[in-house]
Write a structure and sequence with these properties.
A hairpin with a 5-residue loop joins β7 and β8. The termini are far apart. The chain is an alpha/beta fold. The protein has helices at about 10-20, 40-50, 75-80, 80-85, 120-135, 180-185, 190-195, 215-230, 235-250, 255, and strands at about 25-30, 55-60, 65-70, 90-95, 100-105, 105-115, 140-145, 150, 155-165, 165-175, 230-235. The model is unreliable at about 1-10 (pLDDT under 50). The protein has an 8-stranded mixed beta sheet with strand order 7-8-9-10-6-2-1-11, with helices on both faces.
């Protein structure tokens, strides 16, 4: 039986067509399974966008405790640098806009690379992907005008996007679980910003996927891949080496703007 969306599709047939559209995506894999730095996966997105001749690509990834902040953010205003250094939390800047995010091995990072050049359309397709997966898990969720995914009135997934010639890259952090102490202390949104939203704590604004499903994280990863992709494309060792070279641009001090 097809998957029906509340507020997303007018019919089950539409949802079936939506899923069929995503099944044309290629899932991008690596020849080895070690966990890499967050900067590697940012470079991998960019490499795929620039060099792979596929209309839609997708992959999931996980990282050791890290903070990733947006293209236009001032590091010291958004991140408790001392706390991160004390607790071994790495800091990275991405090329997309948006806010500051804490990530660890209990989060799922999503990367969607598409030939859709209209950023709004790319965002919309990606949000539909996430809603499709959550609906398959039996979870009612909604997208917002800020391109967040909400379960009830709490955020489970935030997204950001940037554009290259002929390509859009959308990436996202989905909270399956997290180290809440690190999340609360590594990121330092101003009290003024929180009060503007009428909320006094980060914890009150987010929710965890594990509270809505009995599936362990690895099974959720399998469900996401099988829902969205039928085919895969493994990067060659030479392509991985090219990604590693590109990664160095994300690690330059002048890009990260961290005082060592």
């Amino acid at each position: 039986m097809g998957i029906c969306f509340v507020g997303l599709a007018k019919s089950c047939k539409f949802a079936e067509n939506l899923q069929n559209e995503f099944l044309g995506m290629k899932y991008i894999t690596l020849p080895t399974s070690e966990v890499r730095r967050l900067s590697f996966y940012l470079a991998m997105e960019e490499y795929v966008a620039r060099h792979l001749d596929e209309p839609d690509c997708f992959f999931l990834w996980q990282v050791e405790p890290s903070v990733i902040f947006g293209r236009n953010q001032v590091l010291e205003n958004e991140v408790n640098v001392d706390y991160c250094r004390t607790h071994g939390i790495k800091l990275y800047r991405r090329k997309s806009g948006g806010g500051c995010v804490y990530a660890d091995m209990d989060n799922l990072m999503w990367s969607f690379i598409t030939s859709e050049e209209n950023v709004n359309f790319a965002f919309n397709r990606f949000i539909n992907m996430v809603l499709l997966v959550l609906r398959k898990l039996g979870i009612e969720a909604t997208g917002t005008s800020h391109n967040d995914v909400m379960i009830g009135d709490r955020k489970v997934c935030g997204t950001a996007c940037y554009h290259l010639e002929g390509r859009s890259i959308v990436h996202s952090t989905m909270l399956y679980d997290t180290n809440m102490a690190h999340m609360l202390n590594a990121i330092t949104p101003s009290r003024e910003k929180l009060q503007k939203k009428g909320i006094e704590s980060v914890r009150q604004r987010i929710t965890l996927l594990k509270d809505y499903t009995s599936l362990p994280l690895d099974d959720v990863k399998t469900l996401i891949r099988e829902t969205l992709c039928q085919d895969s494309r493994m990067l060659t060792p030479a392509e991985v080496a090219a990604v590693e070279t590109l990664e160095q641009t994300y690690l330059k001090e002048e890009f990260i703007k961290i005082l060592q």
